Amino acid sequence: MKLNVTKSSLYEHVSRIGKALSSPKRLELIELLAQGEKTVETLAQQARMDVRLASAHLKALREARLVESRREGKFIHYSLSGQDVAELWLNVRDVAEAHLLELRLALEQMSAAPDVLSPESRESLLAKARSGDIVVIDVRPEAEYEAGHLPFARSMPLGELEKRLAELPVGKAVVAYCRGPFCVMSDEAVQLLKKRGITAHKITDGVTEWQAGGLPIER
Amino acid sequence: MKLNVTKSSLYEHVSRIGKALSSPKRLELIELLAQGEKTVETLAQQARMDVRLASAHLKALREARLVESRREGKFIHYSLSGQDVAELWLNVRDVAEAHLLELRLALEQMSAAPDVLSPESRESLLAKARSGDIVVIDVRPEAEYEAGHLPFARSMPLGELEKRLAELPVGKAVVAYCRGPFCVMSDEAVQLLKKRGITAHKITDGVTEWQAGGLPIER
DNA sequence: CTAACATTCCAATGTTTGTTAGAGTGTTTC
DNA sequence: GAAACACTCTAACAAACATTGGAATGTTAG
Prior knowledge:
Two copies of one chain form a homodimer. By secondary structure, chain A is α/β, with parallel strands linked by helices. Chain A is built from eleven helices and seven strands.
């Protein structure tokens, strides 16, 4: 029998948010939810964890009011309870990257192999995409593309990429993106494309980073 | 016997930052450190906790690279390891305030009594302070004032306020501030001033909020 | 109604964390 | 050198947490 003592100092309240951010699994769920609303099953599958565990973590996130749920028939759809939550995730990630050497090393090692497009300005990328100079592909699952994607990007989920290579205009450089710097799907896409002789690069920005930078998102 | 397995997924690294933010005591220490570097003893005293406990929490914060320490003779001075850490704290606090009803209620209740200056723009406050239209007082301990304060503010620590009332120009409205919305020192200052018949208001901004808003800080 | 399914709840496990007590380091002052 | 001081480390315990197995809930489809 637990008593509801609510040791409610102001810091206590804020620490509930901190607690929600203190588990790697929950952070992964937040990043996935930043790509659009999802069911528990989808989340569990994409984060490779047991459904029960995902449910438990989602409960914790819901209690910290970072996520909301919506029932639709058999399924319960979870989503972040605001754009500010996605931006908080970016903020925590940036601070971690700035101060934790280990993380910076791990990230460098990860994206050392495939071509990362030099961080030219987001606007210049946008301009090239608009003019048709380059082809921007979104290699995330289609549902995430539907929930919001970069302007002028076309959906080309990693799993289908190989079969759908013919859809890509010949001779044009391809720029791939996925969920953000922690996501390896764009790396794999670039590898595959280069193997087929297609000029390909990746950008580490995902939709969340793009949006947080004040740039437009299409739907 | 613990093995140093370092389950180093990327999320694992970021969660170290989250863990550091998951304890109310640590958050309080972060807020205090945002006011300027401090020794363990000062921190323990201001946060009303045992020195040993403060030391333990500081160790955790240091391991998450959110704070740094610097030895100077007998004393070890702790400080945030970057402005970004202070801004992360603001970000977490803002998200908590936006999504946790309980916190918003607690805050409203807290600042219901004393006069909160209507959130007129920071610039207009600055202008009035510059022109001498109002007197801005910083009621934090003097050391924190020294480490950085609002432009045109004069130091008037809460503990000395009563003795030093004569220093205030007569007939002018006083605006008090302290560490931020969680800090009650400005509330107490306003109460005391009003009791003496002095027109007094508070602003909830502290130096950190002011600075994060892109406004200048004096030193 | 029942069956199938998505999701959550409950209970039990081992692990991590917060806290305090007491001892130990390193630095200054005499 | 010794004493005083600021701070940290070790050990210990209770509380909180993550994870898994098994059962329960609520919904749709028949």
